[in-house]
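Lecture notes, structural biology module. Today: joint structure prediction for complexes of two components.
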Amino acid sequence: EVQPVESGGGLVQPGGSLRLSCAASGFMFSSYWMSWVRQAPGKGLEWVAITNQDGSETYYVDSVKGRFTISSDNAKNSLYLQMNSLRAEDTAVYYCARGTNCCRGQGTLVTVSS
Amino acid sequence: DVVMTQSPLSLPVTLGQPASISCRSSESLVFSDGNTYLNWFHQRPGQSPRRLIYRVSNRDSGVPDRFSGSGSGTDFTLKISRVEAEDVGIYYCMQSRHWPWTFGQGTKVEIK
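The predicted structure, tokenised, for the full assembly:
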């Protein structure tokens, strides 16, 4: 199994938007629940959002509900996180995860600051 | 949300000696399928976290057999039989029984 590659992070102003991507290979994307996990600088880990195999079920941690949207494209073996109305407290490294098997990639850093 | 409480939060250890970390959940982690959804992660300094153990006691591929997990219901333990230098870092327990999945605060393991 090849490590996932997260991308799309960067510096954004409060209230702005970003779309994160996770490209994975070596397994059937459509066979797993996929999710995003984040780690703020110097802090612990937080499971942010999760989607089932066909996208019919999604769950979010309360702090991102209504602002973040998780989605996947099984044909492209890719996972996405659309992040809107970003806040300073969303600053973190974001990892994608297959099931509970986090965080095999390097993650992508999101910095929300003016 | 399910609260995961780890102890101790700091664990100085001697190389070659055993170490043990406790994790307690505020709700049972047993699912109707009979499985218990408790996982352990390790994060070395400057690196991404890695899962060590899933469903209480199943080691991930490549994890040395000096690591073992045990427990049931709401009380769990991660044991290292003989600590090696590469074992330093922060260990997190994490429950995947109830959404949102939640982590413990982390236990920092360092060499004395």
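Point to remember: Chain B has a mean pLDDT of 97.
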